[in-house]
Amino acid sequence: MIRLMQDADVQQVYDIERRVQSHPWTIKQFQESIAAYQSTVIERQGKVVGFCILQPVLDEANLLLMAIDPGQQGKGLGFQLLDESIALLKNNPIQIFLEVREGNQPAIRLYEKAD
Q1: Which of 57, 61, 103 has the alpha carbon at shortest distance from 82?
Q2: Which residues are catalytic?
Q3: CB–CB of 16/27 below 8 Å?
Q4: Cα 26 to Cα 106: distance, rounded to the nearest angstrom
Q5: In the 8-state DSSP scheme, what is residue 52?
Q6: What's the pLDDT tens digit per position in 1-50?
Q7: Are 90 and 56 in contact (CB under 8 A)?
Q8: Most CB atoms within 10 A, among 10, 13, 20, 45?
């Protein structure tokens, strides 16, 4: 199930972020993202296993942050989360912008698949 992030999700989202990022966002940044951006989560069996934070800007959007719990990676959840999160954007963006580290091949493959 993919839905908008709620305050009750922030700790689970933060835990995932800490496992996948060398410089993770803070809990406060995630709390603020709920109101400031379109923040979505993907759940499996009642547990948050991934999140996506998009910033709509005019007729575009910026993918600010996205992660899937390492134990759930490789199951297509990232593609599903990204695809449905983009579909939820109210501004119907023409383009989505993102930055990705050159060595992050799993993310690059995901983004190329979503193109």
Answers
A1: 61
A2: 99, 111
A3: no
A4: 24
A5: E
A6: 999 999 999 999 999 999 998 889 999 999 999 999 999 999 999 999 99
A7: yes
A8: 13
Task: Kindly report the pTM of this predicted structure.
Answer: 0.85
Rounded to whole angstroms, how far apart are CA atoms 58 and 100?
A: 22
- Do 18 and 27 form a contact (C-beta atoms < 8 A)? no
Question: Are 37 and 75 contacting, i.e. CB atoms less than 8 angstroms apart?
Answer: no
Distance CA(20)–CA(4), nearest Å, equals 21
Q: Residue 57 in contact with residue 97, Cβ under 8 Å?
A: no
With b for 16 or more beta-carbon neighbours within 10 A and e for fewer, the 56-75 pattern comes to beeeebbbbbbbbbeebbee
CB 70 within 8 A of CB 20: yes
**Model pLDDT for residues 57-94, shown as the tens digit of each residue:** 998 898 999 999 999 999 999 999 999 999 999 888 77
User: Is-contact 83 114, C-beta < 8 A?
Assistant: yes
